Amino acid sequence: MFLLIILFVSGLAVTIKGGDWLVxxxxxxxxxxxxxxxxxxxxxxxxxxxxxxxxxxxxxxxxDHSDIALANxxxxxxxxxxxxxGLCGLLMPLxxxxxxxxxxxxxxxLAVVMLLLFGNDFxxxxxxxxxxxxxGIFMLIVFALFLIYLFRQSKxxxxxxxxxxxxxxxxxxxxxxxSGLGFLLVGGQVSVTSAVNLAKAINISEKVIGLTVLAIxxxxxxxxxxxxxxxxxxxNIAIGNIIxxxxxxxLWILGIGSxxxxxxxxxxxxxxxxxxxxGTVFLILAMFTGKKRQLDRWESIVLLGIYGVWMLLSAxxxxxxxxxxxxxxx
Length: 330
Known about the structure:
Subcellular location: Membrane
GO molecular function, one term: calcium channel activity
Transmembrane segments: 6-26, 38-62, 68-93, 105-124, 136-152, 173-196, 208-230, 242-263, 269-289, 301-322
Pfam family, one: Na_Ca_ex
Number of helices: 11
Distance between the termini: 47 Å
Oligomer: single chain
Number of domains: 1
GO biological process, one term: intracellular calcium ion homeostasis
CATH architecture: Up-down Bundle
C-alpha cells in the first residue's frame, strides 16, 4: 500500500510538472501574437492546466473506469470554482469583466446542465444512464462554437495588456510544450493505475478517490497558476484559467471521452453536479451583490463553505439521498 501511495504522489508530481511546462511554453508563444490576458487564461492556460484531468480521465475511460473519469472532472470543477476562486477572492476582491459574467460563466453553467441531462438520459429513454457518443459529439460542437466565438470576439476588443508577461522564443516554447506533454502522459498513466489499485486495496470506491484525492491533485496546476497570477496582479489570467478549465473539463474532456467510449453515469453524481451548479449560480449572483462585478471576501468564504459541505457529503461523513432523474424520461 505504501508503494501505491508513493506511485500515486509521484505520478501526480510528474503530471503537474508537465502541465507547468506546457503552460509556460504555450503562454509564452501566445504572447508573441498579442493575445489578451483573459483570452490566454480562457484558452491556452486553461487548456494546459486541464491536461492533467484530460490525461487521467481519458486513460480511466479507456481502462473502463468511468467512475474515476467522471469523479475526477466533477471533483476538479468543484475544487476550481469553490476553492481556487475562493482563495483568490480572499487574497484580494476579484473584479470580473462584464463580458465574462455574460459569456464565460453562463457557458460553464450550461456545460454542467448538459452533463446532468445527458447523464440521466433526458433525451433518450434508457435504463442504463450514460453519456453516449452522440452526447459527446454534441458537447464537442458546443465547445468548438464557444472557442470560435471567443477568438472572433477577441479581434473586436481593444487589447491593452497584450505586451505584459513573459515572451519566450519559439524553440524554447515548443521544447516546453513537447516535454510537458510527455510528462503528462507518463504521470497520468501512473496516477490512474495507482489510484485504481489503491481504491481496491483500502476498499474505497473509485468515485471517492476520484472526487477527492485525484481531483485535488490534478487541480493543483490551476491552483498554482491562479495564485501566481493573482500575486502578479494578473487577475484576468486567474479568472480565465478557473472558468476556462471548468468549461474544458466538461465539454472537451468528457466530450472526447464519451466519443471514444460511452461513459456510465451513476445517479450518485447528480448531487455533486447540483452542488457545482449552485456554486456557479452563486458566483453569478455575487456579481450583483456588494460591489458590482466583484467577488468580495465574504462571498469567497461562502464558496469555500459550500465546498466544505460538499466534501463532507462526498467523504460519507454526511448522508444524502441518491437523486435519480428517471422521471425526466416519462
